[in-house]
Amino acid sequence: MGVENNIPKGWVETSIGKVTVVESGGTPSTKNSLYWSDEIPWITPRDLSSFKDVFIEKGERSISIEGLKNSSAKLLPKNTILFSSRAPIGYVVIAQNETATNQGFKNLICDEVNSHFKYFYYLMKFKADFIERLSSGSTFSEASGTLIKSIELNLPPLPEQKSIAKALTVFDDKIELLQAQNKTLETMAQTIFKEWFGKYQQELTPPNGWRTFSLSELVDVINGYSYKGKELVEESNEALVSLKSFDRNGGFQTRGFKPFKGSPKAQHEVKIGDLVVAHTDLTQDAEVLGNPAFVFDNGGFEKMYITMDLVKVISKNEDIGSSFLYYLMKDRYFKGHCVGYSNGTTVLHLSKKAIPEYQLYLPENFDLIKKFTKIANDTTNKISLNKDAIKSLTKTRDTLLPKLMSGQVRVNNIKNA
Quick one: three-class SS letters along 374-389? Predict the structure, then answer.
């Protein structure tokens, strides 16, 4: 491999601060409305909590040129690597255009002479856990600019950086394609649901052959397990599925799974394919409250149990499938109903009556429901297969990443990259 002193031939010992410019961000005063407009995209770690793409164009809010001038925020060039340095540490994206960030980032600007932006995107993903372990703080851990600059690395020459990035990008491109396909599939199913069922929900009387149903006629709602802190453990073959598994933009992930040893009942167990609904929200915006999600992954655990933050929804009728219920609960009228049945000053809680008491118009003959359920099942099955493929691609990429970054595996045909 041509390794000298454990460094691949042609590579150099250096640090992040020597080959990139590391910039922090800032927040304009929220009391001055002139500092906030749609002129400059402004990114916060919160914008990345459910963001899955490599490049980001904008966040939830933007700032004005005056806001940029009157704060510590900086205008960052296209292709800057945005690395969240607190709350939490380790989100990594690339700026698709000129942008700014808040102070929760340390941003890396590459010169494309010594450092290639896409290579450093993967490098920061590779170094994220290491950086988090080195970070400190009295309230929450934070990676300082000094720490980021001091991170040592063995850096390949620019052509090899580009080749490594290109090899890893192949996986991310496939992952993004599958994620986009899943969004399209879900949007199509939602559109059909709205056309067949949703458009009637605001009428004063149901269409001919339809009647008012309460969800209590159609489903059973199972509350989650109220666990004790001492039941959380470092390692276990059982996990608690918590609110952290819900994305703000919809979807479900295993990041919120907590290894534990406790005494839940069989009714609290969930398996792949089960439908769960968020019964709590950590924000007053009700971003996930009332949102449905399928459990698509077991995270490597043998058994999974829902916490009190969630409920499990089970159909009482064989003609009412979970896929139909999922799109019913994705409908904006159900969301509005849940917001109306919520309470709490800091944390929002959904009333136990909310789901059973939701009313909607449905045809008394379930043929149309069965027809939609078949479409929804096909959609859900395709999404599930895509998620399995994404999981496999992600695992392969993450296995390859440290080997490429260390030079253990070298990319061939560098000149042709």
Answer: HHHHHHHHHHHHHHHH
